[in-house]
Amino acid sequence: MASQNGSVLMRVLVTGGSGLIGKAIEQVVMRDGEKREGEQWIFISSKDADLLDLEQTRAVFEKHRPTHVIHLAAKVGGLYLQMRENLHFLRDNLRINDNVLWTAHEMGVTKVVSCLSSCIFPDKTTYPIDETMIHLGPPHESNYGYSYAKRMIDVQNRAYFAQYGHRYTAVIPTNVFGPHDNFNEAEGHVLTAIMNKTYKAKRNNTTLNVWGSGKPLRQFIYSMDIGRLMVWVLREYDEVDPIILSVGEEDEVSIRQAVEMIAEALEFKGKIEYDTSLSDGQLKKTANNAKLRRYLPDFTFTPFREAVKLTCDWFVKNYDHART
Ligand code: NAP
Ligand code: GDP
């Protein structure tokens, strides 16, 4: 949206602005020349407002008076943290999402783009999964708390449209990774946890321990690609129905292949062991990006190997202040 006289036409509040995807969106709009005249972008973290609290949520919306919201803030974590804390994933995310969507409604926000995830789809399903299948059966038992809370965003978006005509929508990213991710070994997602473990195994000359069999398949997407796509969704995508943001089905890789690429990127030559006593989580959650391709047939994804290398390099360079 452009302005003739330099006035702000679109004030975008990004919740979760300090996280993996928030930082990528910030880079896209603030540094990569994607910012448009008439747009103002505000990135907030839990330090600006604890969105679990309705009054703090209202106060931060009052302060910034957004016309548009990208809602990223959430309790987020890898498989093993989710298995330990299903109740907290459910409660925290239900509360944060309800506070943000209701406050957006109260303050007349025109558009909200929230984040679902491909791990919230039914466990027993046919493949590939598409946007119409979110509610067609229980999610995998490992992450039902996060999944049911996220599914409710889609229910809320439909209800806000039915009752108030709001165009609040959601994206469904597959596994995201990149700079500013959480590299914590016990709590992070697989790639960044493995990058940290590999870095330490190389430094200490020890074995790299991978959890699970390495057989599950995932579609990984680089955070900068998600950042560009979410800015497009905010500006151009007009449906209430969600849209899957993913690389193609042909780009699915096994955890084992991903581990080998990380070892290569970090030049780790030691022994790699797979602990098959630990859960594998979902074997696969192959998602179909046909809807995205209908809108953006020419969008180019960063090749996985290149994105792994970029993230490993960022981690090594920023080791002292990365989230570990
Ligand atoms: P992240 O790096 O863990 O960042 C989480 C963000 O949420 C941080 O900015 C954090 O603020 C904020 N936050 C957490 N609790 C909050 C609270 N109570 N009040 C205010 N802010 C709070 O997460 P991410 O990977 O960027 O994920 C962003 C969104 O994408 C989430 O909705 C997630 O479910 C979704 N998603 C992620 C993936 C993935 O693979 N990472 C895949 C699909 C969907 P602080 O920095 O202050 O803690
Ligand atoms: P998911 O894609 O939602 O299941 O979440 P993750 O990003 O946590 O990936 C989990 C998959 O990676 C499972 O198959 C795990 O067995 C495997 N994995 C291997 N090592 C690790 C690790 O150190 N941390 C995590 N989170 N997953 C690992």
UniProtKB/TrEMBL annotation:
GO molecular function (one): GDP-L-fucose synthase activity
Matching InterPro entries: Epimerase_deHydtase, GDP_fucose/colitose_synth, NAD(P)-bd_dom_sf
Secretion signal span: none
Enzyme Commission (EC) number: 1.1.1.271
Pfam families associated with the record: Epimerase
Pathway(s) it belongs to: Nucleotide-sugar biosynthesis; GDP-L-fucose biosynthesis via de novo pathway; GDP-L-fucose from GDP-alpha-D-mannose: step 2/2
Keyword Ubl conjugation among UniProt keywords: no
GO BP term (any one): 'de novo' GDP-L-fucose biosynthetic process
Alphabetized UniProt keyword annotations: Isomerase, NADP, Oxidoreductase
Ranges of residues in domain NAD-dependent epimerase/dehydratase: 12-248
EC main group: oxidoreductase
Membership in a protein family: Belongs to the NAD(P)-dependent epimerase/dehydratase family. Fucose synthase subfamily.
Functional summary from the UniProt entry: Catalyzes the two-step NADP-dependent conversion of GDP-4-dehydro-6-deoxy-D-mannose to GDP-fucose, involving an epimerase and a reductase reaction.
Identification of the protein by name: GDP-L-fucose synthase
